[in-house]
Task: structure prediction
Amino acid sequence: MTTGIQADEFGAKLKAREVIKRLRIRRAEDISIEEIAWVAGAIVIDGGLQGAEARLVHSPGADKAILRVRGDVAPSGRRRFAIAHELGHLKLNHRAGSATQCSEKDFSAWYQGQKNQEVEANIFASELLMPEGLVKAHLTRTLPGLEVVERLANSFDTTLTASAIRYIELCDEPCAVVYSSNQKVCWFRANPLFRGWIKIGGPLSPNTHASDYFTTGTASQRMEIVRKDAWIDGASDRSTIKEQSRAFPRYNSVLTILWAGD
Ligand SMILES: [Zn+2]
Result:
């Protein structure tokens, strides 16, 4: 649902932090999504869903909910993220008293201006599954790139996209994450150190490695130096930026980390 106002990302983060604090979670392995759901009044059931990845049915005032996840959601990190996302809808009182049904498209809504409640549920989920203090402990002496993002996704058992967003939020290098689908930029998120604007909805420049995936079916797996104006609107054609991209063939999408540092 688009309301025309900005998603309340800070409010969503605060709610997730309350849960982490109340349950005294101090290690990544303590984040049991089923236990968190149980404390929130939600029972998790796998299977029995078609046409959606997750569904939350919440009875108003009864403080009880049934949270269903499609049986074939894999790997485990995707399932955990789907449950955490639905818990976000529950804890943030989205559409209280009615059923919430979410798809892969909702789990990919990370950009202000997309569906606000979905963005808030995603922000809640990433804060819940990857608490700031625990993530920061993983970031010492690491170089930006998808290798550290993959390590985060493994350590916290969540999705690569959520881990990439958490990474750029908490690292101290000028970085952005870009999600492209069907050869177009769907959204990007950048940290305050990153200067420049990436055009949403625009076609990928043929000078990007992300574009290679859509045109040839493969793309370099390494961090590569590319022309900055291939990504950044109005950048000088003489400056460069680093890009590392990873394709999700199942969704015909590419996740890219941009690093504007040395
Ligand atoms: Zn949702």
